[in-house]
Each structure stands twice: as structure tokens, then as C-alpha cells.
Amino acid sequence: MDLWLAALIGIISISTSVVGWLLLSTKKRRAESWPMVAGHVERAVVEGTDTGYTADISYSYQVNGEFFSGFYQKEFRMRRFAEEFVAITRGQQLFVRYHPEKPADSVIREQDNAALIAVR
User: Which H helix or E strand runs over 33?
Assistant: First the structure.
């Protein structure tokens, strides 16, 4: 019985990850037509996970004089690559897409930031 429970938990976990990835991918595709502004990387750190390392990037941007913030993550298999990415992005400018009717809703698209994000 324990094996079935472990398998069920694994399936639920994988399903949740896939659904989250699909939702984010859909949002990024829809954001292609959203306005774009310059943002600023406020914080960049590396976090270890069970499957590798994640670069966690916090950014800020301004729309019509009002400040907003967002969060971006990029996964790496090796800590060294995640640390290089964080070192390159820390304090840098990046392009942020925001929802025209809800400017607090933003996304970082790799296509808009190819020179900065396309590291490894």
C-alpha cells in the first residue's frame, strides 16, 4: 500500500509541475503583445533544489510613475552555472513586459532579454 501512495504522490507532484509550466508558458506567449519597460534586478541569489539549482531574480519596474516588482527563476543543473548567471544579472537592467490593464502583472521573456538571460 505504501508503494501506491508514493506513486500517487509522485504523479500529483509531476502533474502540478507540468500544469504550472504550461500556465507560465501561456502567460509568456500572451505577453508578447504587452508593453515593455526597462526594469532593474534588485536581488539575485542561487537556491539548491532536489533536481539542480535555481537562480531567483527579483526585479522592479515603473509604469506611469508607479513602482512594481516581480520575480523570475531560471533553472540550472550545475551550481557553477547558476552562480555565473546570478553574478551577471545582479544589478543589471532587463526588459519587463506588463499587462496593460494590470501593470502589477509582469513577466520576463527570455526573447526580450537574450543578451542577459541566454547564459548557459
Answer: none
Contact 88, 113 (CB under 8 A): no
Q: Domain count of the chain? A: 2
Whole-model pTM above 0.85?
no
User: Maximum Cα–Cα distance for the chain, whole Å?
Assistant: 58
pLDDT for residue 35: 97
User: Element (H or E) spanning 113, and its range?
Assistant: none
Burial of 7 (0-12, 13-18, 19+ CB in 10 A): exposed
Residues 6 and 65 in one domain: no
Residues of the chain with pLDDT under 70: 1-29, 118-120
